[in-house]
Design goal:
Helix content of chain A: 55-70%
Oligomer: homodimer
CATH topology of the largest domain in chain A: Arc Repressor Mutant, subunit A
Radius of gyration of chain A: 20 Å
CATH class of the largest domain in chain A: Mainly Alpha
Largest interface: A-B, 69 and 69 residues
CATH architecture of the largest domain in chain A: Orthogonal Bundle
CATH superfamily of the largest domain in chain A: Winged helix-like DNA-binding domain superfamily/Winged helix DNA-binding domain
Number of strands of chain A: 2
Largest sheet of chain A: 2 strands, antiparallel
Strand order of the largest sheet of chain A: 1-2
Distance between the termini of chain A: 50 Å
Structural class of chain A: mainly alpha
Chain lengths: ~180, ~180
DNA sequence: CGATGCATGTAAGCTGTTACATGATTGC
DNA sequence: GCAATCATGTAACAGCTTACATGCATCG
């Protein structure tokens, strides 16, 4: 919404267009799909109406000559869009938003005591394995970006978090 | 769903009832509300139908004498429910689930370059402040649980993650 | 020229939220 | 006795997903 504040996915989508200067809806979908986080499936049913909404709200614009033979419409972030993006970024510092990190492994760890000793051990060990594989892919993503680019710095956060999760699970393994 | 697999919220709700042995829907809501993660608002419109669904599916049961004068129905996890809970826990090791961590600060950090030098500095510094306040509340939660309880160990994960996020943001501050 | 992939979009469904309604209990 | 809170529920809505439909382009 232009009047209200941007949703998470709206902010991210707007940011992706901004980063690419000019791109199609499909490119936004692809980038979301390829991102290491699987939080969003980048479904067509979400992306296309969302970008339309942003365009109607004046945060995105597509010039006439932006439609090529295949019917692809190239989008650009407007001045208002940039402003909205900045506002959205600062909104993230809201306590409610900061605390809304979500870790499915941790959600499950809370209920480990329904597992037998052996199952619990297996759960923790397998978690470490899964996390280490995940860590590898996030590190690979990190290597792609050039150092000191915002992309590198942002991905660094994913690596730090994944490392912390591994360290945490190893601590649990010790105490068992 | 009893036949299929549990959703995230279903797993968590079932786990909360299991942990308490026997509790009302309201107690589940309250625990979700008071949890340090604000990922779920624990809205009545979600919890009550969800618990009904689990009961119809045979994962939860409420005995007749469980209804007290105030109409509170006390729920218990059935044998099938315990089995479903264990399955759900192990399902979390699925790569798609492991990778679905979601950090709103990191989402925003990807697009920091739309900010001016000063704005960016402010964003990072304010983020550190917000994260440190969040870290304080997660540490407080940690102190409540007795050491070596699963609750303590699970909350430890939240602390590790929050520490990693602070460390990450301070790293960004250095490189600016 | 036919298969595969690019690209856009829509319809139906699920899940969760907000906001409201209702009544019973507790505390002052 | 009245306010606040406990406790359960419902209706309307918002957002995202799956699954489908469509057409163009590219490559063998």
């Amino acid at each position: 919404m232009p009047a209200g504040s941007l949703s998470e996915l709206e902010g991210v989508a707007l940011g992706i267009v901004q980063k690419r200067k000019r791109c199609t809806a499909y490119a936004v979908r692809r980038e979301l799909k390829q991102s290491p986080s699987t939080h969003w499936r980048a479904s067509a049913g979400a992306i296309y109406p969302l970008l339309e909404r942003l365009e109607r709200g004046g945060l995105l614009a597509s010039t006439k000559d932006s439609v090529d033979g295949r019917g692809r419409r190239h989008l650009q972030v407007t001045v208002d869009g940039k402003k909205a993006l900045r506002t959205w970024i600062f909104e993230g510092l809201d306590p409610g938003v900061v605390a809304s990190v979500f870790d499915p492994i941790r959600s499950r760890a809370f209920f480990m005591d329904v597992l037998s000793r052996r199952q619990r051990q297996k759960f923790v060990e397998d978690s470490i394995g899964a996390l280490e594989r995940y860590l590898e892919t996030t590190r690979a993503h990190l290597a792609e970006g050039e150092r000191d680019s915002v992309e590198y710095l942002a991905n660094l956060g994913a690596v730090y978090e994944a490392e912390a999760r591994v360290k945490w699970m190893k601590k649990i393994l010790e105490s068992a």
